[in-house]
Write a structure and sequence with these properties.
The chain is an alpha/beta fold and 350 residues long. The chain contains 10 helices and 15 strands.
Length: 350
């Protein structure tokens, strides 16, 4: 900055030149930081308002869920061989006794059969994300008494499975109360100490509203702690408006708009890269049914919008073993389809 001061002295004009140099440090990126989390490049235009937090973000682009809590336990290596899908989200870690993390609230994290199945997937080059929460059971997020104990429980699950990616699936539609502050503080502790990559999997209200109020509260609170996270939208189990594929995309569009309002200082393309969508294969828990055409619509729409991730509930339902079923089933889609047809559609995203 150059400031020129002019003053009169003894009838003569004296010009004093003062030069002030300001040294601005360049952004520091850790080894685990993803390109989407980096600060703007030098000379890039700045946008007013808060920005999405910098930090390590998930990089996996396609990863359907696998339910480890409903028997029989899948052979993940064999599933990978059959489906070609090697990146998965394992659900769900729930509270056992007190704040002890377990699979489904009953099975120890170190269960040899579960560990062997995960090892088989990793031997084929697969990656796993640990998911905490889900639709049923006792949450760690409610049973752990404070942020420190919750962070330790998360860390224990990540260590046993051998991954740095945590998915927090908070579902409050059944009246479950969760302290968003406790979750946000725990995730801050976890990401600061370990560089953990975090996904927040959240519910949507409708095609006319986007994310639920509880979802917006969770995302905003986690963001306020400076935690970098992917926002994974569960585009399922809400009232259909028009075509189901378009309804899912409409719900995602409104959710993205809410995130852009939360982070007006971020490039819209960066915000979009932080968004994922997870659909429910075939019969939903509500009246909606996701067809293969609907799935293709969502995948194509997610790619066109620049989203960072697509997923599905669930990989083991991706078969036509129970066509015409009136309700959602755990092991089949409820529609006529070839095995792994939805998985093949998702894989085109990556």
């Amino acid at each position: 900055m150059i400031v020129v001061l002019r003053a009169a002295l003894a009838g003569a004009s004296l010009t004093v030149l003062l030069v002030v140099l300001a040294v601005v440090p360049s952004p520091i990126r850790t080894a685990q930081s993803s390109p989407a989390a980096a600060a703007p490049a030098a000379g890039a235009p700045t946008r007013p308002g808060p920005r999405a937090p910098d930090g390590p973000l998930p990089t996996v682009r396609v990863a359907p869920y696998v339910d480890l809590t409903t028997p029989p336990l899948p052979d993940l290596g064999a599933v990978a061989d059959a489906s070609g899908q090697r990146d998965v989200v394992l659900g769900f870690v729930l509270a056992g006794a007190g704040c002890t993390p377990t699979w489904g609230g009953t099975t120890p994290l170190t269960d040899p059969a579960v560990q062997g199945s995960i090892a088989g997937l990793k031997a084929r080059g697969g990656t796993v994300t640990v998911s905490s929460g889900g639709a049923a059971g006792d949450y760690l997020e409610t049973r752990c008494p404070d942020a420190a104990s919750l962070a330790r429980a998360y860390g224990q699950a990540l260590d046993v499975v051998g991954t740095d990616h945590l998915d927090v699936d908070i579902e409050t539609d059944k009246g479950r109360a969760v302290s968003t502050a406790r979750v946000a503080d725990a995730l801050k502790l976890l990401q600061t100490a370990r560089g953990t990559r975090i996904t927040l999997t959240v519910q949507v209200e409708s095609a006319d509203a986007g994310m639920t109020d509880d979802a917006r509260d969770l995302v905003g609170t986690v963001s306020s702690r400076g935690v970098a996270a992917r926002i994974n939208l569960m585009v399922m189990n809400f009232e259909q408006r028009g075509g189901w594929g378009e309804s899912m995309l409409d719900a995602a569009d409104l959710s993205l708009a809410a995130l852009q309002r939360l982070w007006p200082g971020s490039d819209p393309a960066d915000v979009a890269r932080r968004v994922g969508v997870t659909l429910m294969i075939g019969r939903n828990d509500t009246a909606a049914t996701t067809t293969l055409a609907d799935g293709a619509t969502v995948v194509d729409g997610a790619r066109a919008r620049g989203y960072g991730y697509v997923g599905a509930w669930s990989l083991l339902r991706d078969n036509g073993g129970c066509p015409g079923t009136a309700t959602e089933a755990d092991h089949c889609s409820g529609i006529t389809q070839a095995p792994w047809a939805f998985t093949r559609a998702l894989q085109r995203f990556g």
